[in-house]
Amino acid sequence: MKKKLTLWAVLCVLFVGMMQITAAAAGNVTINQCIISGANQVTVVAAQAAAVPSDDNSYYLFALKPYETAIGARQDFCAVADKAPTLTFVTTLDFGTEASKLTSKFVVAAKVGGVFTAVSQEFYITNPEALATHTAPNPVTTSIKGITADNAAIMALSDLGVQHASYELAIDRFFVPGAGVPYVYNGKPYSFNQGVVAEYDMIMALFASQKLEVTMNIVNYYNAATALTVKPSGRSGKYRHYAFNTDEQLGAESIEALMAFLTERYSNPATGLISNWIIGNEVNNNNPWYFAGNYNVTNFALEYEKAFRLCYNAIKSQNANARVLTCIDQRWTWEDGTANQYGAKKFIDAFNVDVASHGNIDWGVAWHPHPVPLTAARFWDMPANYKAMNLIDHTPNTRMINPQNMEVFTNYMAQPAFLAPNGQVRYIIISEILFNSQTSDEQTQAASFAYAYKLAETNPLIKGFIVHRTVDNIYEKNADKISCGLYNCDANGLPTTPKQMYNVFKYIDTPESAAYTQFALPIIGAPSWAALGCK
Q1: Residue 172 φ then ψ, to 5°
Q2: Which of 522, 504, 521 is nearest to 513 (CA)?
Q3: What is the pLDDT of residue 535?
Q4: Do 312 and 244 form a contact (C-beta atoms < 8 A)?
Q5: What is the pTM of this model?
Q6: Can you tell me the distance from the alpha carbon of 245 to that of 222, in angstroms, rounded to the nearest whole number?
Q7: How far apart are the first and last CA of the chain?
C-alpha cells in the first residue's frame, strides 16, 4: 500500500535535496588567483569544474573580512561573472579606506533559492607587496651567527661580531592606555603607547647602526586592559603567550593597523629595519606558547593561518622585502599527550595545506632545534632515560630534531609540496637555540654551542643561527633550571662575568675559530671536526 507524503516529509526531502546541491556546488569552483592588478584593482580568477544549479546564469564574488566566517545574509557582492569554464572577477581594492579588501577572504557564490551560497574555497590576495613603498634590500650577511639581544648587555653585540639579532615585540603593549603616537589606517584613527614606541625606536636604531639582520618575534600577552588583541577563546590568563584576535572586528582591525604602523616605521636601513617577522612563538605548542583555546591540529592550523595572513598582508603591503615566518619547536612527531600541543610536523603539514588552498605566499620558518632535553647541553650524548626513548634518528618521522639531525627538517622543506611560489626552498632560520651551563659546566656549554654551530654552518638551507641568549635570565634560571647566556647574571638579572662560551661565540666565524674550538673535540669524543661532518 502506498503511503502519502506528509508536509513534514516533503520538507525533509526538499531540505536534503538542497543540501546535496549545496554540497555538490562547494567543490565546483576553484579560485586559482587573487592579485592586486592595478592602482585600486583586484583580479580574481577561478575555474569551474561543472555548472552549479542556481537561480541565474551568474557567479558572484564576495570579500569577507578576517572576522567573518560566512556570507550569511549578505547581499553586497563585489563582482559578478557569467558562468564559464574560466571565471574572471575584477573589483576595487579600496586600500586606505574602511572598505579595504587587503586582508579579506574572497569567495565565489551562486544564488540558490534567493540566497548566496559559497561554491568555492576562501582565497586571499597573494601579492600585497604590490602596494609597498618600502623596498630597501635586507642586510647582506656573510655569517649565520646571531644572538637574542638582551637590554642588559646590548652593547656587547658589536664586540661579538654578530650579523643577526633577535628581539621580542609584544603587540598588547602598544595598546596599553596612556600618551599615544597617533596613526590613521584605512581611514580610522589609532593611538599606540608612546613609551613603548620610543623603546623600540631606540633598540631599532642601535641595530641599524650595526647593520644587523633583525628578527622580531611578534608575541601577545594577556591582561584585561589589552584583551582586544587576544583571541576570545584563548582569554584565560594562565598561559605564556596568546593567539592573535581575528575573531572580532576591533581586535582584527587593531592588529592589522599595528602591523602596518610597525612595518612602516621599521623599514629604513638607516633608522631601523626589521627583516624577519615571526608570527607567534613555537605555535605548534598552543599550550602554552600560542594559546588559542581547545583545537585539534587541523582546526588550530586554520585559525592560526587567519592571523598569519592578516599580519603577512599588512607587513608586505608596507615593505616588499620583509620576510614573514611561522615558528616551530624541536618536537617533530613527538606528542606527550598534553592538550593543545601538536608535533611540529603535523602542524607544518596542516599549515602548508591551508596556505596552498587559500593562495600560496612566501612564508618562511623560524625554528628551534634545541638540545633534548632543554636542560642538557650535550645533545650528542643525551641522558640515559632520553636515549632509551629513541627520540633522535635521521628519518622523516624522527620524534625530535636537535642539532644532530637538522637535515631532517631542511630536507622535508625541500620537497616540491613545500616550496615557495618562486620554486625555491623557503627561508629557514634558527631563531632560538640554547645551551645550558647550569646542569653541566661552562666548558660543556661552549663545546655544545661550537658543535651545533658547525653542523648548522654545513647546511646551506639554514640562513641564521640565533643563540638564546646574551645574559642568563633570572626566571629561566630559577623556574626552568636553565642558564644559557654568554654572561652570568646577578640576583637582579644584570650581567656579571662572561662565560667560556663568550669567546667561542665571538670567534666561531672568524679565521681564529680553530684556536677557540679545538678544546671541544675531546669533550665530544672526536678526532677532528671533519670526522663529525663539519667544516
Answers
A1: -60, -30
A2: 504
A3: 86
A4: no
A5: 0.94
A6: 11
A7: 87
pLDDT band at 27 (very low <50, low <70, confident <90, very high): low
Identify the pLDDT of residue 1: 37
SS3 of 40-77: the string is CEEEEEEEECCCCCCCCCEEEEEEECCCCCCCCCCCCC
Identify the H or E element spanning 316: helix 297-316
DSSP, collapsed to helix, strand or coil, labels residue 399 as coil
Mind listing the pLDDT tens digit for each residue in 362-417? Answer: 999 999 999 999 999 999 999 999 999 999 999 999 999 999 999 999 999 999 99
Give the cell for residue 200.
623600540
pLDDT in tens, 495-519: 999 999 999 999 999 999 999 999 9
> How big is the CA angle at 263 (ends 260 and 269), to the nearest 5 degrees?
160
Across the range 190-195, mean pLDDT stands at 98
Residue with cell 612564508: 363
Question: Cβ-count burial of 535 within 10 angstroms (0-12 exposed, 13-18 middle, 19+ buried)?
Answer: exposed
Read off φ and ψ for residue 301, nearest 5 degrees.
-60, -40
The secondary structure element, H or E, covering residue 32 is strand 29-38
pLDDT bucket at 50, cuts 50 / 70 / 90: confident
Q: CA-CA distance, 159 to 164, in Å (whole number)?
A: 13
Contacts of 72-75 with CB under 8 Å at 24 or more apart are: 74/116, 75/116
pLDDT above 60 (res 5): no
Rg of the chain over Cα atoms, rounded to whole angstroms, equals 26
Q: Establish how many alpha carbons lie within 13 A of residue 370's alpha carbon, considering only the half-sphere containing its beta carbon.
A: 20
**Length of the chain counted residue by residue:** 535
Kindly tell me the sign of the dihedral angle through the C-alpha atoms of 269, 275, 277, 282.
negative
- Give me the residue label for grid cell 607587513: 315
Q: What is the model's pLDDT at position 14? A: 34
Residue that the C-alpha cell 631601523 belongs to: 272
C-alpha span between 528 and 524 (Å, rounded):
10
CA distance 213 to 142: 11
DSSP designation for 309: H
Cβ atoms of 498 and 472 within 8 Å: the answer is: no
Determine the 3-state secondary structure of 125 from DSSP: coil
pLDDT of 132 higher than 90: yes
Please tell me whether residue 17 adopts helix, strand or coil conformation: helix
- Check residue 152 and give its pLDDT: 84
Question: Please, are residues 352 and 417 in contact by the beta-carbon 8 Å criterion?
Answer: yes
Examine residue 511 and say whether the peptide bond preceding it is cis (omega within 30 degrees of 0): no
Q: Is 232 exposed, middle or buried (0-12, 13-18, 19+ CB in 10 A)?
A: middle
Q: Which residue type does 522 have?
A: P
Q: Which of 368, 372, 512, 391 is nearest to 448 (CA)?
A: 372
Tell me: pLDDT of 7 over 60: no
d(CA 382, CA 267): 43
| CB within 8 Å of 376: residues ≥ 6 apart | 382, 383, 386, 436, 439, 440
- Residue 6 has what pLDDT? 40
